[in-house]
């Protein structure tokens, strides 16, 4: 069951409780989008006009609040990724998938942070990340089998690109909010099969990639 499905199937709240719940979600979406996953829960509660205890009654953990706040962004990403995967041309589908992901990533620092982290204790976040990895693998493999993408690129290379561009997005979000498109297209040009040259460093393994994402989620 997805976060959105949980929200839709939970027991109805009293009107006043529902209003507090909605204010908390609105404040959380603003704060996570601006500050990332480490956003102050106290400030979210204050902006929503409730006590911190009320926040925890509605959302027992930071991750519960984060995932509820990210639900519209996840839906936006999912809609775009499904359209990209329906494109007949393998290279155009690959490009469209990444551009959609980067566009959503650039618009929300919380989503940006979420992409680079793993939360092993949360089956829902693991499912979302696993689905993204499968999609990346699918669009990349299609482009490789069509002879459009160089054959030595792996899913880990794409995830590393997402990480590195995410850092740039943090720095340029107010001064040049669409600057992320340039490094993306420079890298896409490098991913072309006809640009391929030997690379001295092997790609990260799936375990190395997973462990790095867990480290980011637990680092101070």
Automatic annotation (TrEMBL):
One Pfam family named in its UniProt record: TetR_C_43
Gene3D superfamilies: Tetracycline Repressor, domain 2 (1.10.357.10)
Domain HTH tetR-type residues, every copy: 18-77
Any GO molecular function: DNA-binding transcription factor activity
Positions of the DNA-binding region: 40-59
InterPro entries per UniProt: Homeodomain-like_sf, HTH-type_TetR-like_transc_reg, HTH_TetR, Tet_transcr_reg_TetR-rel_C_sf, TetR_SbtR-like_C
Keywords for the protein's UniProt record, in alphabetical order: DNA-binding, Transcription, Transcription regulation
PANTHER family named among the record's database cross-references: HTH-TYPE TRANSCRIPTIONAL REGULATOR BETI (PTHR30055:SF234), HTH-TYPE TRANSCRIPTIONAL REGULATOR RUTR (PTHR30055)
The name this protein goes by in its record: TetR/AcrR family transcriptional regulator
């Amino acid at each position: 069951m997805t976060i959105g499905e949980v929200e839709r199937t939970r027991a109805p709240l009293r009107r006043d409780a529902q209003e507090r719940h909605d204010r908390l979600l609105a404040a959380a979406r603003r704060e996570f989008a601006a500050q990332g996953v480490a956003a102050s829960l106290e400030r979210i509660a204050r902006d929503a006009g409730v006590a911190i205890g009320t926040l925890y009654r509605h959302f027992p953990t930071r991750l519960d609040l984060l995932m509820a706040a990210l639900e519209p962004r996840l839906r936006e990403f999912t809609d775009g990724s499904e359209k990209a995967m329906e494109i007949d041309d393998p290279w155009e589908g690959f490009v469209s998938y990444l551009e959609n992901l980067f566009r959503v990533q650039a618009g929300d620092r919380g989503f940006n942070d979420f992409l680079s982290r793993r939360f092993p204790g949360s089956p829902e976040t693991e499912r979302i990340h696993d689905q993204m990895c499968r999609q990346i693998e699918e669009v990349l493999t299609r482009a490789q089998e069509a002879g459009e993408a160089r054959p030595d690129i792996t899913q880990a290379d794409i995830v590393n690109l997402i990480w590195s561009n995410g850092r740039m997005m943090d720095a340029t979000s107010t001064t040049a909010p669409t600057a992320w498109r340039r490094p993306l297209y420079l890298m896409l040009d490098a991913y072309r099969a006809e640009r391929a040259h030997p690379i001295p460093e092997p790609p990260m393994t799936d375990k190395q990639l997973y462990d790095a994402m867990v480290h980011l989620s637990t680092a101070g």
